[in-house]
Design brief:
Length: 223
């Protein structure tokens, strides 16, 4: 059923919409679609997947300084290179060669020291292709292999479960789901009038202002 593997549970959504003593079941399938839809919209907004994964594998350009993983909240990161591109398993890169921004799913490479770069100037390596020089030489491959592999393999755990999702992000997702479900018969709604007579206009398909504010805290910043 839709919504089963989401970062928010069906019961949590129903408790947000109705009194816990009611817990209406007739809308389960419909609510599942709202859960999937809103979580998908949030992931698009944040440019990161939220659903939990284990030992996820992606491949990236070895010349990039910043590696953007598909998921938020990454951990247990491992990176391999392999000049033959077989990755079975390849050569494991020491973790000291990069820094992980876990919450935003970003890996930043470390440049080798100037001493190492000066030692290999004669090889005329392309600009920016200096990430793994030290490790390739240590492995006995020779730096001349460096610009042959071109890609790297990254493995990580990532995303959230309903129990590990940050409380404010969970609240924002539940609030947006509840709002869209309650207004499902008013697709043309464009404004809300407050008791003091003021009007706040926004589309039924847009994030609520309070939800948008929370999403801003988790939004990925590209460098």
């Amino acid at each position: 059923m839709a919504g089963e593997n989401s970062v928010v549970t069906l019961d949590a959504v129903k408790n947000t919409i109705w009194d816990p003593t009611e817990m209406q079941s007739g809308f389960d399938t419909n609510l599942g679609y709202y859960i999937d839809g809103v979580v998908g919209e949030v992931e698009t907004e944040l440019e990161m997947r939220l659903v939990s994964v284990t030992q996820e594998v992606v491949y990236r350009d070895s010349g990039e300084k910043w590696l953007y993983m598909p998921h938020a909240n990454i951990s247990n990161v491992q990176i391999w290179i392999d000049p033959k591109r077989l990755f079975d398993p390849g050569y494991l890169i020491p973790s000291r060669k990069y820094t992980v921004d876990g919450p935003r799913g970003i890996i930043k490479r470390h440049r080798p020291s100037d001493r190492l770069l000066r030692g290999y100037v004669a090889l005329d390596l392309p600009a920016g292709d200096d990430w793994w020089i030290e490790d390739l030489v240590t492995m006995g491959l020779g730096a001349f292999y460096f610009d042959w592999h071109g890609i790297i393999k990254v493995q990580y755990d990532g995303g959230y479960t309903p129990d590990t999702l940050p409380k404010d992000l969970r609240r924002a997702i539940l609030q947006q789901i509840a709002y869209e479900f309650r207004r499902r018969k008013d697709p043309g709604l464009t404004s809300v009038t407050f008791p003091d007579g003021s009007i706040n206009k926004f589309s039924i398909n847009e994030f609520l202002p309070s939800v948008e504010k929370i999403l801003d805290r988790y939004r990925r910043v590209r460098v």
